[in-house]
């Protein structure tokens, strides 16, 4: 198998069901989902697998779901069934609830960081928000984009926030509160979300 095809040398790329410009919002959306997947892989290398066995299982599952999400976003073929399901969103919600119960109560915004793996997860969180914004832009252009993709990315960024806090907690490192933050959280969730 050759890794290069030369078919993209003029700024076009193949997607499922057609070809588009490489800077098309669809390519930006699924490319950003791929970027998330890379940061997840990096974070997994930074975690102790014995202390974070449950997290490893989550993150491996998420890596597969991100491939599903990217494939769904890369498709303009109405014949191709979507792979990402609402069950994936529900699973993230159940894990977020567990993280909220495990980590200390939160009242203020926190600074990203604490430990190296938590910082990597915070990067994944912010890239996930970018992917979500790009997917919303894509939905404005193509009404056939799965709404589950946006739901999943929205929930995934929340999952990463909760996970970063749990990582720091399990490693005995306190989150650093943003010093000028008002009390914006109630019951571990941000007001208005």
From TrEMBL:
What's a Pfam family in this record? Answer: Cob_adeno_trans
This protein's UniProt keywords: ATP-binding, Cobalamin biosynthesis, Nucleotide-binding, Transferase
Q: Which SUPFAM superfamilies match?
A: Cobalamin adenosyltransferase-like (SSF89028)
An example Gene Ontology molecular-function term: corrinoid adenosyltransferase activity
The pathway is:
Cofactor biosynthesis; adenosylcobalamin biosynthesis; adenosylcobalamin from cob(II)yrinate a,c-diamide: step 2/7
Gene Ontology biological-process entries:
cobalamin biosynthetic process
Q: Where is the Cobalamin adenosyltransferase-like domain?
A: 3-166
Q: Which reaction does it catalyse?
A: 2 cob(II)yrinate a,c diamide + reduced [electron-transfer flavoprotein] + 2 ATP = 2 adenosylcob(III)yrinate a,c-diamide + 2 triphosphate + oxidized [electron-transfer flavoprotein] + 3 H(+); 2 cob(II)alamin + reduced [electron-transfer flavoprotein] + 2 ATP = 2 adenosylcob(III)alamin + 2 triphosphate + oxidized [electron-transfer flavoprotein] + 3 H(+)
At the top level of its lineage, which domain of life is listed? Bacteria
What EC number is given for this enzyme?
Answer: 2.5.1.17
Subunit-level organization = Homotrimer.
What family does this belong to?
Belongs to the Cob(I)alamin adenosyltransferase family.
Task: Give the protein's recorded name.
Answer: Corrinoid adenosyltransferase
Organism (species): Peribacillus cavernae
């Amino acid at each position: 198998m050759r890794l290069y095809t030369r078919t993209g040398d003029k700024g076009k790329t193949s997607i499922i069901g057609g070809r588009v410009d490489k800077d098309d919002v669809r390519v930006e959306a699924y490319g950003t989902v791929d970027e998330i997947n890379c940061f997840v892989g990096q974070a997994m290398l930074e975690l102790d697998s014995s202390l974070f066995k449950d997290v490893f299982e989550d993150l491996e599952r998420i890596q597969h779901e991100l491939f599903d999400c990217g494939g769904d976003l890369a498709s303009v073929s109405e014949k191709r069934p979507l792979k990402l399901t609402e069950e994936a969103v529900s699973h993230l919600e159940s894990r977020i609830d567990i993280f909220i119960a495990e980590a200390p109560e939160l009242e203020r915004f926190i600074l990203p960081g604490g430990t190296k793996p938590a910082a990597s997860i915070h990067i994944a969180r912010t890239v996930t928000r970018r992917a979500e914004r790009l997917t919303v832009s894509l939905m404005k252009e193509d009404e056939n984009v799965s709404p589950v993709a946006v739901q999943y990315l929205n929930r995934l960024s929340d999952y990463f926030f909760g996970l970063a806090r749990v990582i720091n907690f399990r490693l005995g490192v306190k989150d650093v509160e943003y010093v000028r933050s008002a009390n914006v959280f109630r019951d571990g969730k941000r007001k208005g979300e």
